[in-house]
Amino acid sequence: MPNITLDMIDRKILDAVQIDGRITNQELADQIGLSPSPCLRRVRQLEAQGVIARYVALANPEALGLNVTAFVRVRLDQQDDRHLDAFEAAVSSFPEVMECYLMTGEADYQLRILVRSLTEFEDFLRHRLTRVPGVANVTTSFALRPVIYKTALPTLDPLET
User: Fold this and answer.
1) If DSSP codes are grouped into helix, strand and coil, which group holds residue 145?
2) Could you report the per-residue pLDDT of 13-63, keeping only the tens digit for each?
3) What whole-number distance in Å separates Cα of residue 126 and Cα of residue 128?
4) 161 vs 156: CA distance, rounded Å
5) pTM higher than 0.85, yes or no?
6) What confidence category does residue 116 fall into, taking pLDDT thresholds of 50, 70 and 90?
7) In Å, what is the CA distance from 30 to each residue of 6, 15, 16?
C-alpha cells in the first residue's frame, strides 16, 4: 500500500472514528468543524484508500473470562518458506492467538495468547501449539497486568508536534 498523505482534517477524522466507530456523520462533522457532506466524502475517501480498513467492536476480555494473557516466543527447526507458511496457517486457526508476528532475533514468532486460566493455557500449549510441525522451542511470559493498551493508531506527524 502506498504511503498516503493525510492533512489535519483527515487526522481528526481518524482520531474520532478510532475512539468511537459508531459516531454519526453529523456528530463527526460537528466535532472536526466540517459540514456533513464534505465530512462524509472524506470518510468515504479514507475507506476507499484503505486508511480506514474496517469498523469493529472491542470486547472486554475480562468480561468474557479471558483473564490470562501469555506472550509466547516460538522458534522453528527450519525457517524456509514451506515451514513458515505451515506454522502461520496452523496458528491462524487457533482462536486463542490474538496476534502473531514474524520476528528477528532469537525467536521466529511472537504470539499474544488470551485464555481463561493457566490450565487452559497448558492445554493449548501441550496439545495444540507444540504439536504444530516444525516447532522446536517455545518460551512463555505471562502478563501481570496491562500498563498501556491502545487500539487507536497515532495519526499526528511527529514533525508537526
Assistant:
1) coil
2) 999 999 999 999 999 999 999 999 999 999 999 999 999 999 999 999 999
3) 6
4) 7
5) yes
6) very high
7) 20, 14, 11
Q: Where in the chain is the domain with CATH 3.30.70.920?
A: 62-142
Taking the alpha carbons of 133, 102, 122, 93 in that order, is the dihedral positive or negative? negative
Q: Is the pLDDT of residue 157 over 80?
A: no
Closest CA to 25 of 40, 5, 38, 10: 40
Class of domain 8-57: mainly alpha
Query: Which tens digit of pLDDT belongs to each residue from 60-105?
Result: 999 999 999 999 999 999 999 999 999 999 999 999 999 999 999 9
Contact partners, residue 17, CB within 8 Å, separation at least 6: 23, 28, 43, 52, 55
CATH of 62-142, one of 3.30.230.70, 3.40.50.720, 1.10.150.120, 3.30.70.920: 3.30.70.920
Q: Are 42 and 8 in contact (CB under 8 A)?
A: no
> Reduced to 3 states, what is the DSSP secondary structure of residue 67?
coil
Among 153, 122, 150, 114, which Cα is nearest to 138's?
A: 122
